Amino acid sequence: MSVVDLLEVRNISKTFVSGFLFSGRKVVAVDKVSFSIPGEKPIIFVLAGESGSGKSTIARIILKFIKPDEGEVFYKGKNIFAINSKEDLLYRREVQAVFQDPYSAFNPVYPVDHILSITARRLGVDQGKEIDEAIDEALVSVGLRPEEVRGKYPYQLSGGQRQR
Known about the structure:
Layout: E1 7-17, E2 26-37, H1 55-62, E3 70-75, E4 78-79, H2 85-94, H3 112-122, H4 129-141, H5 146-149, H6 159-163
Antiparallel strand pairs: 1-2, 1-3, 3-4
Helix pairs in contact: 3-4
């Protein structure tokens, strides 16, 4: 039995044709990008890079907002642009984005712990101590100290803390 990656991006390319000021000019946003994320169950991963490096275009392709000009994207071994409507519903439920805007990423009514515990439950983490450990691990992995973040509301965090 072969192991299938959770997500595989295979040689995707996307070119846009600009309008208005530079009418007809082609802009290569993504050129033959490939990567894979191993595993079997949903995880949280970050797509990071310099400004203009194609992150947003890659994310929009993975989220099926746009189609690549070339290449394929596979989720659990299935081409996301060739799945049926039932599989597409499951895909959209399991593959979601948290966008960079730190002000719109959180509901200001709830403390950060509450928001992160919902995410942990949706990823299959059990109740109680296991959720607390997963939250602390996630915070540390992005360079935050749990004792400075836990129990606070989004407005009490700096912009950089909210982004992470």
